[in-house]
Design brief:
The complex is a heterodimer of chains A (about 180) and B (about 300). With about 180 residues, chain A is mostly beta strands. In chain A, about 10% of the residues lie in helices and about 30% in strands. Chain A contains three helices and nine strands; from the N terminus they run H-E-H-E-E-H-E-E-E-E-E-E. Chain A has a five-stranded antiparallel sheet with strand order 2-3-1-4-5. In chain A, strands 6-7-8-9 form a four-stranded antiparallel sheet, with no helix packed on it. In chain B, helix 2 (about 55-65) crosses helix 9, helix 5 (about 135-145) packs across helix 6 and helix 5 (about 135-145) packs across helix 9 (about 285-300). Chain B starts with 14 loop residues before the first helix and ends with a helix. The chains are: A mainly beta (about 180), B alpha/beta (about 300). At the A-B interface, loops of A face helix 4 of B.
Chain lengths: ~180, ~300
Amino acid sequence: MADILPKKDQNGQKERSSDEAKDEPKGLRVKPINNGTVIDHIAGGQALNVLKILGISGTTDATVSVVMNVESRKLGKKDIVKVEDRELFEEEVNRIALIAPAASINIIRDCKVIEKRTVDLPDEIVGVVRCQNPNCISNTLEPIKSRMLVKTKNPVLLRCLYCEQPLTDRIAEYLI
Amino acid sequence: MFMKRHVLSMREFSREEIDSVLDLAASLEPYARGKKSDMMAGKILALLFFEPSTRTRMSFETAMKRLGGSVINLGPAEGSSISKGESLADTVRVIGGYADALVIRHPKEGSARLASQFSPVPVLNAGDGAGHHPTQTLLDLYTIKKESCLENLSIALVGDLKYGRTVHSLAYALSLFGADITLVSPPGLRMPDPIKTDLSSKGTCVRETCDLGEVVNNVDVLYMTRIQRERFPDPVEYNKVASSYRISPEFLAGAKKNLIIMHPLPRVDEISPLVDETAHARYFQQSFYGVPVRMALLKMLIGAGA
C-alpha cells in the first residue's frame, strides 16, 4: 500500500493521506492524527451528516475534527472528518455512502495509514434513515428499527422494508 | 409453485405464483358455493381488524368455515389490550399462539410486515393503511380471468387512484400479465408517480386521462373505485368531480359488447343501480370470488401439506 509510510510535508508534519495532501492548496488546517480514522472526500457541506450517521453527537468523548468546504480537485468543495482513537468498522463507514458516495476512509495507527478504502453501501440499512411516510408503522412506538432496502447505489434509491415507500433525494433530512 | 409463509404484498408474487392461486381457487369454487368440506377441520383463523371491514372480514370467515375450520375475532380495539397501549408486535405474538394463521387489517402502512416478523404463524394482509391489499388483488385477477381474459387485456382504472390501495396493487399485478392500463382520475387524485414509473419500467403501457368518456368504448374492463368525499375540503368541488365519474346504461351505449365492470365495493353513486341489470355488471360476482380465492390462500398456507 502506497500510504503505509508516514510522509512529511513542508512544515515537517508527518502523516497525511496522499489525497489529502494533493487536494489541500497549502498548509494544514487541522494537524494530523496519530491514531483513529480520517474520512476524506466527503461532498462539501455533508460532514455534520456524516457525524450523524456515525452516531457522533455533541456529547461524544472522542476528539473529532471537522473541516468543511475546502477546495478539492475531485469534488470542487469537500469536507474532512477526523475521529481520534477510534477505528471505525467497515459496516459503520459504509453507511456514509448514503450521502457521501465518493468518501474515502483512512485508518491511522501510530501515525501510519494502515488501511485505506472507499465506501460501499450495504444491501440494507438498519436504524439509520427513517421512512419519509408519516403513516408507516416504522414511525410508531413499535419495538422495531427502521429498515431501508438499497435498491440502487448510484443514484441512491432506498425502499422502506415496511411500507415500501421509496426515498431518493433529501436522504440527509431523514437521518435518525 | 407456492412457497410463501405470509401473504403481505403483490410485489412478492411471481406470475407463476398468481396462476397457482387462481387455479386452486377455481377448484375450490364448489366449496365456496356450499359443498361440504373438512379440509380445515381443527384449524383456527384469527381475524385482527383494527379498521372497519365487511366484505374482507366476512369472506375470510366464510372461507374458513365452509372448509370446516373455525374463526376467532379480536373484536373492537376499545375492549381489547390495544386500548391499554399494547404494541402490535405483542398482540400478534400472543394471538399467534392461539391460531393457525392471522388475518390483519391495520391503519398503518407496513403493519402486516411488522406482524409477520413477530407472529409464530402465517400472516395475511387484509389492508395496511394506503399500502397493500393483496387478497383483494388476487380476487380481482380471478374475476378478470373468469369473466373476461387476463391476456392482452385493456383495462381502465377509474376514480381515486391516489389513495386507493386496491388500484395500486392491481396495477402492479396487471403489469405481470402485459395489460394496457389507462388511468382515469381527477387531477388531484392521480396515481402517485413512483407507481407509474414502476409500471413503465416493467414495459407496461400506461396512459393517463381525466375523461372517462374518452376510454369507455375501447376497454375490456372498467374498474371503478369510490371517490371519497373526505378528500375534498370543498363539497361543491367534490360534487363536480364525483358526477363526472358516474356511469349509467346510457353512458355505456357505445361500449364493447363484452366489457365487464368491476368495483371493490362499497359503491356510493359512481355506478347507477340500473347498470346492475346490464350484461356488463360483474361487481357482485367479484365480491363472491373473494371466498374461493381466500380459501385457496388458506389451503396453501395452513392446509394439510402446506
